[in-house]
Amino acid sequence: MIETLVVIAISLIVLCSGMPIAFGFGVAAVACGLLFNATGPLDMLAHTMYGGVNSFELLTLPLFILMGIVLANSPAGNDLYEAIHRLFSRLPGSLPMSNIWACAVFAAMCGSSPATAAAIGSSGIPEMRKRGVPDGLAAGSIVGGGTLGILIPPSITFIVYGIATETSIGKLFIAGIVPGVLITILFSIWAVVASVLAQMKTQNAPKLHYNFQGFPSPAAARMTYSWAEKTELLPRVLPIALLVALIIGIIYGGIATPSEAAAIGAGASILLVLTVYRKTLTYTSIIRILGRTVDDSAMIMLIAATSVLFQSVLTDLGLTQNATQAITKLQASPWVIMLIINVLLLLLGCFMPPFAIILLTAPLLHPIILKLGFDPIWFGVIVTLNMEIGCITPPFGINLYVVKRIAPDIPMSTIIVGSMPFVLMLLLGIVVLCIFPELALWLPGKMFVK
Amino acid sequence: MKKAIESVNTFFGYVGVVAVFASVLIIIYEVVARYVFRWATIWEIEASVILIIFTTFVGSAFALKNNAHVKMDMFVEKLKPSPRKRLNIVSSVLALSFCIYASVKGWQMWWEAYSLGWRSDSLWAPPLAIPYFFLPLGFVLISLQYIVNIVKECKDLRGDRK
């Protein structure tokens, strides 16, 4: 008991000291190991860290990171958003809604939340504000929509969860599709409701010039498009659609492993940028893409290496086993324990990035989940939904900062308030998935197993 | 000295980029060879994993130079500048000592694999001394970068006092 408390205290102090998480896990592991004489894991320190990254599955990570960075630095997100907007243009709330759907499609090529938010938001937010969407809703739809990046495959959190719990990454990817569409629809419903509410508010105010969407329009923005204009962008969006279909088809059809799909996706996205978007490439943008690829890959993979080291110390001290025993001994119903786990994940989500939380907790939670009789694939989706909320909740809601960087003049409080309805929608999604687990499990069950 | 260390890390960072691109090409080749031509594939998957191991450990020094390692700094940011800088130096020294410890353990692991001529447990069986080399190399480069950072932070703190 004392050991557990000391280990938690050391880890908290080290991680909160502002040290990079990758080294924080290492320092905490060595400190606890020396203190409690866990010589085994310390002797094997280098082997353990090497083993943590010596896996073909983990290769999925840098390859999908490369693909996401390549596409996020191209105008693909902009094209996507504009094309979807032209289709939806007659509906109320069409602008925030098309941003949310553009995030969903971009998420099918990119496995990271902040990257999705940045790719769609950098053109979407200025456009929405120009056309009179309230600041809070404009910011919130990108903060919320961006989180789809880790739910809709490919997804960094699914990869990390699959590796940490030895669950099939391919099945996890496919399991994320239906919940991803569900969350996108829930987000869209809020976008429509919020737009109608904003419209009613402004109608009581002195009459302004109203545009098609019910927002007072400062500039006479065009809101209707002819069929020619609606289809004009299709040739530019078609390669994106093919890329999405290719990756999901490869994984669903069991044609190749997720790592191989990632390599094909990365290769195809480089080809796409070199052909369709060649004019937008500059020396600085190429250097940025290259540098960011190494930065992000090395950063996450080093956390993977040191978190395995940290886990090996915990296991050696018997803490992992104790935690499992203590929780399964509780005479509580599985759903009460599930509720506690969700609260714990949400709390951690306020402070740590998703992949670090999963690397830290999944090896502890996995045996508990199996003991309680839950499906590990379904639980992977639940964890990811929690991590999506973690991308929104302050102080470490990374998507809030992405949006703040795109629109520095929107106050942080407006961004946070505008994003909260999206947190509620995600919570609703968790409840729906607990009631209907088939939503996550039906599609992977139909899959050609690989 | 600072410049030399940083340019070495930048150089290795871009070697890490080449390694990522090489593994993309190798795996695409592997997919075509295996699923289209039905050739036996022997070295491709292991080689691409080794390339990514290089990027992980050696690229981490580049990421540290770019301040790209994610950290939980929201509590530290609440502190006043002077105690915050002192805390930064303390945490950097702690991280540095972990990296030195990991380098020592890493060199021991490498030496064992090298002197005993260990080979990977696969059909291709490359000598393990090659991938094992990347871990200690990476941690030595990270340690050097941390020393550069700590010297910078100390100078900064002393500058404030004057």
Would you kindly provide a written description of the structure presented here, covering whatever features stand out?
The complex is a heterodimer of chains A (450) and B (162). Chain A has 450 residues and is mainly α. Chain A has one domain (58-299, 319-445). Chain A is built from 23 helices and no strands. In chain A, helix 18 (334-349) runs antiparallel to helix 19. The longest helix of chain A is centred in the middle third of the chain and has 34 residues, at 283-316. Chain A is globular, with a radius of gyration of 23 Å. The two termini of chain B are 25 Å apart. The model of chain B has no long low-confidence stretch (mean pLDDT 94). The chains are: A mainly alpha (450), B mainly alpha (162). The interface between A and B is large, with 56 and 56 residues.
Summarize this structure briefly.
The complex is a heterodimer of chains A (450) and B (162). Chain A is mostly helical.
